[in-house]
């Protein structure tokens, strides 16, 4: 959307990054306008990384006020900010990270509703929605896809986290052979086709081998999907032991409906369900840092059109410290 040229100051500031991405890739980042929706722990990490990396403009939308709970994972906030609009409290601190980045804040979500939606999305180059419910993600994803804008979603639930992206058709360059010395590598043009979230949720687990299914850590995937289903039914996330039985039943029903190989997983482990039932509403800074950091890195990778982005559903399990990428309904 922007048409700015890297200044001498920016080239000096971003010298190391330019040597990694290349000048043209950095120029694309410099001209990018990114919309981030909802300023919680995951978005805090995303914003820090993309602003420091030298994007052109950040548009930040959030209609909520800073709560005491936000102070634990939102390092843009201070005690005295409680009760203020999140975006208003954070704006100056975001700008201080990199004065060369334009920061626009919108203290309402009305721009994502009705006729205003198209104008909002057409004014940016990429959309990132964090800590949102499933139906809202599907709606915004479909709108972004209709308007030709890359879409990212991410968030955390206690010790679990996820990233999803829909880039429609994405073209990029990558080394032809990473096993040879860097000086012998040649970049080749590649492309990938991404489905929308609504289609990704119909992922054909029956097509996977036992080994492939196990590698995807389906227990974490279906726990997150069950949380989305619970949130859709109740309008909120589970909050304690009273919700364990329903969440367990929901997760197990989804596993059965997806026909996941029984040798790998018949039910989500009860200890995982118990843990997430009690912590789903809690943000843990280390989990936010990992998920938000990876989300930011992938956004920058997409803007730079260098190397393949996530394809297309990443989950993180803070209980083991492991992350897994699941190709959901991707060719």
From TrEMBL:
One of its GO terms (molecular function) is SUMO activating enzyme activity. Pathway: Protein modification; protein sumoylation. Residues 15-328 form the THIF-type NAD/FAD binding fold domain. Keywords: Nucleus, Ubl conjugation pathway. It is found in: Nucleus. The keyword Nucleus applies. It holds the Pfam family ThiF. GO terms for cellular component: cytoplasm; SUMO activating enzyme complex. The keyword Nucleotidyltransferase does not apply. GO terms for biological process: protein sumoylation. Belongs to the ubiquitin-activating E1 family. This is Ubiquitin-like 1-activating enzyme E1A. It comes from Mycena belliarum.
């Amino acid at each position: 959307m922007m048409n700015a040229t890297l200044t001498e100051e920016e080239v000096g500031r971003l010298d190391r990054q330019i040597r990694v991405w290349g000048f043209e890739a950095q120029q694309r980042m410099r001209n990018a306008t990114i919309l981030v929706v909802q300023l919680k722990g995951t978005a805090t990490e995303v914003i820090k990384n993309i602003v420091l990396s030298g994007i052109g403009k950040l548009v930040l939308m959030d209609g909520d006020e800073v709560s005491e709970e936000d102070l634990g994972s939102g390092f843009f906030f201070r005690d005295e900010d409680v009760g203020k609009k999140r975006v208003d409290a954070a704006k100056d601190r975001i700008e201080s990270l990199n004065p060369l980045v334009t920061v626009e804040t919108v203290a309402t979500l009305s721009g994502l509703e009705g006729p205003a939606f198209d104008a909002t999305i057409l004014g940016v180059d990429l959309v990132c929605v964090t800590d949102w419910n499933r139906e809202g993600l599907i709606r915004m994803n479909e709108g972004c896809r209709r308007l030709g804008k890359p879409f990212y979603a991410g968030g955390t639930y206690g010790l679990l986290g996820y990233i999803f992206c829909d880039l429609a058709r994405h073209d990029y360059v990558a080394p032809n052979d990473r096993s040879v010395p860097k000086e012998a590598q040649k970049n080749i043009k590649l492309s990938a086709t991404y489905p929308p979230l609504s289609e990704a949720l119909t992922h054909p687990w029956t097509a996977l081998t036992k080994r492939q299914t196990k590698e995807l850590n389906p227990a974490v995937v279906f726990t997150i999907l069950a949380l989305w289903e619970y949130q859709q039914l109740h309008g909120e996330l589970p909050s304690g032991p009273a919700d364990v039985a329903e969440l367990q039943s929901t997760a197990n029903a989804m596993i059965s409906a997806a026909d996941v190989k029984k040798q790998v997983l018949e039910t989500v482990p009860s200890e995982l369900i118990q843990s997430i039932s009690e912590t789903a509403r809690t943000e843990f800074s280390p989990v936010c840092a990992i998920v938000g950091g990876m989300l930011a890195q992938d956004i920058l990778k997409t803007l730079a059109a260098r190397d393949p982005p996530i394809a297309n559903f990443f989950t993180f399990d803070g209980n083991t410290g492991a992350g897994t990428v699941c190709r959901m309904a991707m060719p």
